[in-house]
Amino acid sequence: MNNYNDFAITKVTKDELYNIMQKKYEDGYRLSQICSIAFEGYNEVIYSVNKDYLMENYKIDLPIDEEIKSFSDIFPAATLYENEIKELWGVKVVGMNIDYHNKFYRIKEETPFKKQITVIKKEDTKDE
């Protein structure tokens, strides 16, 4: 049995990620999720795959102006996640098997979650 606290995130480049996803598919993994968050100047996108109760997570930091190739040719379910991150966070996903052209959700505001956040490191404080 795996330790459920061991869900590390491996940082990779977008070029490495496509090859990793292809290999994971060939090894019998399934796509669990794709999620994104916008930071200053880039989107952090995490891809998770699993097999036999083992989840692996791969993270890329994608500059706002860069595109990423769709994984829907490897994992067909990626189409749903990719339409979501494209529409809500503004991630530039190209080559999707099914592209909803920003009509996946019924939302009033374009890319509502794209508002870039600033990460501020919390200073260590001593209890007095």
From TrEMBL:
<dbReference type="Pfam" id="PF00329">
    <property type="entry name" value="Complex1_30kDa"/>
</dbReference>
<feature type="domain" description="NADH:ubiquinone oxidoreductase 30kDa subunit">
    <location>
        <begin position="11"/>
        <end position="96"/>
    </location>
</feature>
<dbReference type="GO" id="GO:0008137">
    <property type="term" value="F:NADH dehydrogenase (ubiquinone) activity"/>
</dbReference>
<dbReference type="InterPro" id="IPR037232">
    <property type="entry name" value="NADH_quin_OxRdtase_su_C/D-like"/>
</dbReference>
<protein>
    <submittedName>
        <fullName>Ech hydrogenase subunit D</fullName>
    </submittedName>
</protein>
<dbReference type="InterPro" id="IPR001268">
    <property type="entry name" value="NADH_UbQ_OxRdtase_30kDa_su"/>
</dbReference>
